[in-house]
Amino acid sequence: MGAPSSTTTTYESALLRKARWRPLEFVAWAVAFALPFAMPSHSLLVNEIAIVALFAMSLDLILGYTGIVSLGHAAFFGFGAYTAALFAKLVMPDPTVGLVVATALSAMLGLVASVTILRGSDLTRLMVTLGTALLLLELANKLDWLTGGADGLQGVVMGPVLGLFEFDLYGRTAAWYSLAVMLLLFLAMRRIVHSPFGATLKAIRDNRLRAMAIGIPVVSRLVVIYTVAAGIAGAAGALLAQTTGFASLDVLAFDRSADVLLMLVIGGVGWLYGGVAGAIVFKLLQNWLSAVTPQYWMFWIGLLLVLLVLVGRDRVLKPWTWLGKKKGGTA
């Protein structure tokens, strides 16, 4: 009678060991928070990287851990951006309240949209998720009296964070705000993926029919994780709108979904730091190459992707492995 209990305890201990922080992780996060102070001229870039890294991690929840392929994740990112901007403009400028509202409404949108990913093949999900994003894009374009249409939603003025920290021109407050939100949501995602719930997601990713056969409630798991991922993507979009004071159709565009997929290809799927690594590499390359060769920067990023496929991501991005990635992905 004691064997099942002992096995369960051993398995829970293994999950706790995987979730344990490594010393270099503390160093990495400390460096990230120190960057806006040490390099104030690059604070806006740090802010942008933090936002897209959070967006990439939200996609990794459904792609890397659950096996749901999506080309329309920008739907939730853009919905969160417009929600936060409209909330600040029409209701109140408090960024934290606006962030909570945008996250909650994006999660509700994800709950409604989750019915589109419950059936069909990967190709079907690609088309359906892409269609969802395109529908929202066209809706935002048509409702120009509310969203500003092609001109974007302008005149968004944000209040101080927690009533204390005003947004400055250098972007340091914005960077720290985005990093703090990213860290909090990273901790939540880390807890999810290293829990028994997260283990069932990996089982669904590996073999959905086998997961159903052993009693895992596949449908409810898919709905829950899709809702959570949508909420986190909406939070990333809200951060973008709040820190830039602007929301446009670009936040719902196909390019946004394609870019975040490229980040996961660069950083690796199935471990949360893959989204962070991919976002850093992608944004730094984009920032540098667009300054050096404005017309051909996409060619060089494409060349990097080909190199990753031919040589192997672990060899090209080996320095990131100390943050906890093991073969198969654990972080």
TrEMBL record:
Transmembrane segments: 26-56, 62-85, 97-118, 174-193, 214-240, 260-285, 297-313
Origin superkingdom: Bacteria
Compartmental location: Cell membrane
Main location, first listed in the record: membrane
Annotated InterPro entries: ABC_transp_permease (IPR001851), LivM-like (IPR043428)
Keyword Transcription regulation attributed: no
Keywords for this protein: Cell membrane, Membrane, Transmembrane, Transmembrane helix
Membrane topology recorded in Swiss-Prot or TrEMBL: Multi-pass membrane protein
Pfam families: BPD_transp_2
PANTHER family xref list: ABC TRANSPORTER ATP-BINDING PROTEIN (PTHR30482:SF17), HIGH-AFFINITY BRANCHED-CHAIN AMINO ACID TRANSPORT SYSTEM PERMEASE (PTHR30482)
Protein name per the record: Branched-chain amino acid ABC transporter permease
Biological source species: Variovorax beijingensis
